[in-house]
TrEMBL record:
It comes from the Bacteria. This is HuvX protein. SUPFAM superfamilies: Heme iron utilization protein-like. Pfam families: ChuX_HutX. It comes from Campylobacter sputorum subsp. sputorum.
Length: 164
């Protein structure tokens, strides 16, 4: 029987397979699939840089927030506003149009800069992982009316990714 990494690599050869579908089929976190991709497609960063990354992303404008569960993939467009720390949480101080919520500051263990194709479109996203390599949430770069990634966001994504 093939080990999981061999199965993943074989499944990645078929461009119709998404990272999420491979992970779901093999009952593993998306991270386990992404870490086998080329460095140009997945770059892992230690969570010690979490504040720096979130603060930088707050200048990117509207992003697509995504949270997957087996039953529901929730997505909404929002901006990342200022963040504040209190009582062990990173607080997203969202007003209308901005992300609001409270993230346990010790829950994020690694961050992934991801560049992959999905349904024929190239996409860039930033993923936040817990200690079980599960995706806590992710942000996708925005697209224009022609479904093209916004150039200024791509530059900011590439520059931030290159810092690490």
């Amino acid at each position: 029987m093939k080990d999981t990494n061999e199965k993943i690599l074989e499944m990645l050869k078929d461009e119709k397979n998404s990272v999420l579908s491979i992970a779901s089929t093999l009952n593993i976190p998306e991270y386990e699939v992404l870490k086998l991709k080329d460095k140009s497609e997945f770059k892992e960063v230690n969570a010690v840089h979490l504040d720096e990354i979130l603060n930088e992303m707050s200048s990117w404008g509207e992003l697509l927030f995504c949270k997957n569960s087996p039953e529901f993939i929730i997505e909404f467009k929002c901006c990342i506003g200022s963040i504040k720390k209190a009582k062990g949480y990173i607080n997203f101080c969202g007003k209308s149009g901005f992300l609001g919520g409270h993230l346990n500051q010790n829950s994020v263990k690694k961050i992934g800069f991801v560049t992959t194709k999905f349904m024929g479109l190239l996409g860039n996203s930033v993923h936040f992982y817990n200690d079980k390599n599960e995706t806590i949430f992710k942000f996708y770069l925005s697209r224009n009316e022609k479904q093209e990634l916004l150039e200024d966001q791509v530059k900011k994504f590439d520059n931030l990714k290159a810092k690490f």
